[in-house]
Amino acid sequence: MTAWDDLLGAALVGTGRRPFDLAASGVPGAGTVTADTPEAAVLAAAALATGYRRAGWTPPTWRGTPAEPAAPDGRPECTPAAAQLLELLLTRAIRLEVGTEPLTTDWLTAARDAGRRPPHRLLPDLLRFGTTTTTVRGLVREVIGPRGTWLAGHNPAWSWAATVPPSEVAERFATGTRAERVALLADLRATEPARARELVEETWAAEPAATRAAFLDTLRTGLSADDERLLERALDDRAATVRAAATALLDHLPASARARRMAERARQLHQADGAFDLPGEPDAAARRDGVTDHREPGLGRAASRLIQILAATPLSTWDTRWIPAADHDVLLGWTKAALRQHDREWLAALARHQPTPEMIAALTPDTAAEILSGHRKLDARFGALLAAAPGPWPAAFSTEIVGRLRTGKAEAVLRLAARAMAEHLHPAALAAVENWLLALGTDHKPVARALRGIAHALTIRATILQEFT
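-> structure tokens emitted (469 positions)
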């Protein structure tokens, strides 16, 4: 029996039934303490023994395998001011009309381009930001560095930012849920596209149709001619969803065999005067290549089939000089092809002829700015185009567009494009925005509110650029 057991026994049954000798109790330090009564002796021994037990407690021995530490990060830390600004954006302590996500993205982009890292204490906040804002996950992965990747591996909610060890890839792909396997393939396609494709091919025949279609969708990342063999195989799949997924991906490969087959069909429809005949009922080969009975809004089946064929034909088959004389359905087919093939020359030519928000959004910021600068009418259509323009906008265009809207009293355009202006205007336009705001009267409260939001965002963006230059 230990001294603690003896002490507990005396306390439970009472000192009248079990005498307690403080000096002989064996409790460390009891010999230096005096007590007038047996009860006081028990309490004094309990106080000594409790302190001894707490001070002398040893934790249980860890029997697991200690995790390897994070790899070193050689990037210098950002400035204290930049770190404070990031913390305010991540915690939403800064209130902005457009929200904090665009400026957080600006901060991350500036940090990445400058080769600097955030302080380690903000890594959990950055991982939470990437978890809720899926569109910036790739950027977050780049900025958090090896320590952030290591941290993400210890929280299932942050698995999107973790790196799967190469030795575990095959096992996780074999044993994970469909969502986990799709996520694994998507991550692997960014670094090892061939390995991801091999995993898909190994189990292709045994997968259900929904899984095969989901696996094909992951090939969008890093899509190349190396994927064509698998996609051609999928064109013969028994499931329509899988065939549709394959044709959607092949639309992005203008050098593929399917693209050449579509080009041959398109050439047979092309007339000497530049117009196109409408195709007839598609044969089995055309249907295999994705020519369906789907109808475009307001068009018949034949015209819709022509659009499908043109949308899948390499744009190198045609000449941009034919655009002004082309019919509506031909322009629609070429537009779809330009968007899918990411052909900058055709997108710019089509946008100069007849711009749409979708085409403007697919251009580079400089090209979009150049095209929009040539539009003189400040109407709702222009506001939609401006709202779709990608950023960051060039400094000269940013200052010019603020001046044009102010001079033209285009308050309706400002309201339509206020969010895009707050997200994409260059800080060089801040003075123009502030001058417009100061010149407003009291009858322009909605406009003033929009301008204040834009000015606030530009001030923060200017601070971000200053801290990383």
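The mean pLDDT is 91.
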